[in-house]
Amino acid sequence: MRIHSTIAHYVTQRRAIVWLAVALISIASVFVLVTRMRLDTEVLNLLPSGFESVEGLKVYNRDFAQVRELTFALLCQPQDVDKLEEFAPEFAQRLRHQPWCTRIFAGAPMETAEGIHDLQSIAVPLLLNLEPQAFDQAIALLQPQQIRERLHRLREEIEAGSPRPQMELTLDPLGVIAPALKPFASNAAIEEDQPLTSPDRTMRVFLTVTNQPSISAFDCQKLMQEVNAFRQTATQGWDGGPLQVLVTGRSAYVAEISLSMRHDIIVTVLGSIILVGGVFYAGFRRWIPLFGMGFSLILCCVVALACGLLVFGELNMVTIGFCAILIGLGVDFAILIYGRYQQARDEGFDHPTAVGESVRTLGRAVFFGALTTAIGFLALLLAGSAGFTQLGVLIALGISFAGVFMMTVFFLFLPRKSPPPRRDWMFESVRRYVHWIVAKPASVLWIVTPILIALTALAISPKPPVIFDVSTSSMEPKRSDAGYALKTIMEKMPTRWEPVLGIVKANDAQQLHDYWQRIAAHWQKVQDAGKIKSFSTPAALAMSPARERNNRETLQKLSFPAARDALSAAINAEGFNRDTFGPAFALLDQLQSASYLSLRLPDWRSLLPKSSSWWFLVDRYFAHDPLLSTGFVTTNQPVETQAQQQMLRRELPVSGVPMVLSGWSFTLTDLVPWSHRQLILISSLMAVFDAALLAVLYRDWRLWLIQVATLAMSVASMIATMKLLHLPLNLLNVLAFRLVLAIGVDYGIYVLLVWQNAKKLDHDVAGVVKPVILAALTAICGFGSLGAANNPTLSGLGYACAIGLFWSIVATIFFTLPAAAAAEPKSWREESLQPRVKDPEHA
Amino acid sequence: MRNATAVAFLIFGFTAVVRAEPLAPSEVKALLARIHDKRVAAPDVQADFQEQKNVRMLNKPISSSGKVWFKPPNKFRREVKGNSPSVTVSDGQQLWIYYPNFKSAERYTLGKRSPLDAAIAAITASMNLQNVESLYHISASREADGYELQLAPRNPSMKRLLQTFTIRLSNDLQVQRTEMLQPNGDKIVTSYSNESRAPIPDATFEFKPPAGTDVTTPLGR
After folding, report:
1. Would you tell me how many other CB atoms lie within 10 Å of the CB of residue B109?
2. Chain-wide mean pLDDT for chain A?
3. Which tens digits make up the pLDDT trace of A294-334?
4. Predicted ipTM?
5. Domain spanning B22-216 has what CATH number?
6. Which of A253, A451, A557, B89 pairs with B177 at a CA distance of 20 to 30 A?
7. How is chain B split into domains, by residue range?
8. Direct distance between the N- and C-terminal alpha carbons of chain B, in angstroms, rounded to an integer
9. Distance between CA atoms of A480 and A259, rounded to whole angstroms?
10. Domain A430-470+671-834 has CATH 1.20.1640.10
11. Does residue B59 belong to the interface with chain A, where contact is any CB pair within 8 Å?
12. Is the CATH number 3.30.70 carried by domain A499-538+626-662?
C-alpha cells in the first residue's frame, strides 16, 4: 500500500488508533511541560557566545554587585530646582530606611563625617600598600621634628584664613595617610564622570544596592513591587510642581521583561490565532476544519516545546515567539492540504479518496516545504546565540511535526459528509487570473518586472542607506519604565556615557596587584596620548602582600613613643584642641601594632562598615570574588563605531595581563561584524542551499532561474521597503533574511511543482495558488502579530519577516507564475486552456 | 521698692521690645525689597572689617582685620592684615588665597557645586543680599539701631557648612556685623566699618600670583 493510501486508511478507517496516539503524545508532552518548564530571562543569552566581550558582560552581570544596584532619579520642573535640593536628603533618608535597601549613594562620602570616619578606618592597610618610596616619605612625617613643623605651619595657615588646614586636619591629622587615601579621596572623580546632579539641577540621582536574595526574575519582580510601592509614597512632603521618581537597573529591566513575557505570549499567540483563523475562514468558510487546524497547531507547539525542554533544560525568553511563528508557518500546510482536499470533494471524490488525493498531490511539496523551513531555522544555530539556537531548533522541530500532523491528525477533524459546494469567489478570481496569466504572461511581466528591478536597485544603492542600529536601546523593551528612566537620565546627564570595562582575574592577591599596577601605568600613557578621556582602576585597592611586609619592616625602625610625645607637645604649643587629634593618636597605635610582624592584619574589607557609601566605590571595582576585578575607561566619545572599538582593542590591553574588554556599547559594536556575517554570509549559504535544492527539485534550468530571480528580488524588495519605511536592522532582526528565504522559497515550490505536473493548467494551478495566497497571508499575520510584542527583538524580527514574506508572495504570484507561463511552450498552454471537464472520469 | 521694681521692669521690658521686635513675613519682604533697591542703586561695596573666629580645633579664638571689596553678583576681594596676612580673590570662576608669609597660594575652581561654592555663597550673602530668599529661610527683627536678619540655609550643601547666619544692619541698611555659626561649632563674628559704595574697578578682582609663589589646588580641580 502506498503511503498516501496508508494515511488515508488510518485517518478514515482506524481513527481510534490515531486518536489514541494523539492522546498519548499530548499527555507525555504536557507532563514534560508541567514538570520541567524553566524560563531563562537573561537578555545576554540572546547574544552570540564565543565573543570575549559578551562573556565579559555576562561575568560583570553575574559576579559584580552592580547586578543588585538600582538607580533612582528625581526629576523636577526647572522652577523647583532649589526645592529639589532641599528635598533630596529627605528622599535619600526614606530610601535608606526601606527594608530592601542595603546602602545608598546620594553624595560624595567625603562630605560627611561618617564617610571620613569610614575612610580613616581603612587607612592603615592602604598605607601599607604604598610603594616603598612613597611609604618612606609618608612615614618620615612621623619624625618629631616633622610633626612640630607641620602643626606650626597649619596653625599659621588657619590664622591666615585658609580652609585647607581644617580639611586636612579633619581627614588626616598626621599627614601620613593622604597619599594612601588618594584613590578614595578622589572619589569626586566618580561624581565628575558620573555626576549625581544634572547640569540644570532638575535631576538628582541616587544609587542603591538592594538585598534581593537572588537575581532571578521572580525575585526581581518581588523587589520591584516593593520599589514601586515606595515610589507611590516617596514624594510625600514635596510641595513643588510635578516630581517624577524614576528607577532603573538590572532588576527593574528583568522584572519588566519577565512580566512582559506573559503579555507577549498572550498578545502574539492570540493575535496570531485570530488573524490566521480569520484568513482561513475567509478562504474556506468552514469552522470544523478551522478547529482541526487549531488543534493540530497547538499539538505541534506543545510537542515541540516539550522536546525543546528535554533538549535544552530551559527556554530563553525569545522562544516565546516560537508559537506565533509556528502557527504562521504550520497553517500553510493546513491551508494547502485542505484546499486540495476541498477541491477534490467539490469535484465529487469521497472522503477517503479526497484525503489520499491531497496527500498524494501535496505530500512532496509539504515535505520539501518543511525541509527548507526547518533548515532555514536550523541555520540559526550558526548564530551562536543560545536563545536563537533554541528558537531555531524549536521551530525546526515544530515545523516537522506540523508537516506530519497536518497530513494525519488534521484529517480526523474533517467531516465525512461534505457540505454542498458554495460559490468560491476567491477561487474564481484566482482561476481567472491564472487563465489570463497563462494567456498573456508578458502583460504582467512588463509591469511587475520593472517594479521589482527598481526595488532591487534601490536595495543595492548606497543611498538611502540601510539603518543599522547597534545602540543599546535597540535591545531595550518597548514601553519600558526602566528604559525611559535610563534614557531620561542619559539625556539629562550627557557626560554619563557607559565606560569600557577591563576585567581582570588573578590567581592571588600579589598577581592582581601586579596586573593592575601595569595596567594603570599603561592606561596613563594612553590617556596622555589623548586616546581616552580618563580611566579608573582598583590599583590602589589591590593589596600587595610583598609590599605590606616590606613596609611593616620599615615601621619597626620608627620610634612611636617619640612621635606621640612630639605630637602632644606640638598640640599644646600651637594651642590646638587635643580632641581634634584623637584619630591621630589612634593611628599611631594602629601603626605600632602593624609593626609587629607576628600580628596578622585584618582584611581591609572587614574594617569598612556594611552601610558605608565607600562600598559603592569598592564594589565598582571588585566582584564577590576579590581576585576578580574591573577597571573603567571613559572614552572621548560614546563607543559607536568599529574604528573606536578597534582602537580600544589595540591600545588598552597590556602584554602578559589577561584582560577581557567589555561593556554594553563595546560589546554591541563588537558584534557588528558578526551581525554583518549573519546578514551576508549565512543568508548567502541559505540561498545557495535553496538554489541547489531547487535545481534537484525542478531539473529545469528555466524554472530554476525564475525561482532564483524571484527569491533575489523578494529579499531585495524587503531591504528597499525597510529603507523607505526607515525600519532599522538590529543585531538580531538580520536573522529575518534567512527566514524569508526559507519560507519564501516554499511558495515558489508549491506553485512550480504543480505547474510542472499540471494536466489541467488553470484548474490545478488555481487550486494551489489560492491556498498559497492564503498561506502567505497567514504567515504574514503570524509574523506581523510579533510586532505587538514588547520585546524589541521579537517585534523587529516579526516586522522584517512580514515585509519579506509580503514581497515573496507578490513576486511568486506576479512574477514567478507569469514568467513560468512565458517560459513554457505556447501549444501546451493552449491545450490546457480548454474548458474544464464537468464530470471528471474518476468522479 | 515695689514702684522701683515696676519702673525697672517697664524700662527693661520696653528696651527688650525695642531691641528685638520680630518682623512679619510681609515686613521681611518689604525690608528685603528696600535692601534690594539700595543695592541696585549702588551695587559695589567696600569696607574695613574686624573678625573673630572661634575654631573648634583651636583652644583660643583668632582675631584678624582687613578690608573687603565686593562687586555683584560674585566678585570679591578680602585682604587680611597683621601677623598672618592673606589675600583672597574671586572673579566668580576661580578663588585664590595667597599667603605672603609662605609665598604660597591656593587655587580653587568654583561653579562645580563643591562645598566651596556653598562657602562662597555664604560669604557673599552678607554683602550682596540679592536672591537670599532662594538660598535661605529668612526671619528678621527690628533692633534699637537697625535690623537683624536670621538666615538659615535651605539646601543641604549649605547646611553642611552653615547652621545660621545672622546679619546686623544699620537703620540705613548698611551691614554692621555678621555672625556665622557652623554645624561643627565654629563661630565667626565679623564687624564692618567705613563702608563705601563707590564703583570698584574689575582689576581689583583679578589675581596673578607673584613670581616664585608655590601654587596648589587642594581640591584637585
Report:
1. 15
2. 83
3. 899 889 989 998 998 898 888 876 676 677 677 777 888 88
4. 0.81
5. 2.50.20.10
6. B89
7. 22-216
8. 70
9. 11
10. yes
11. yes
12. yes
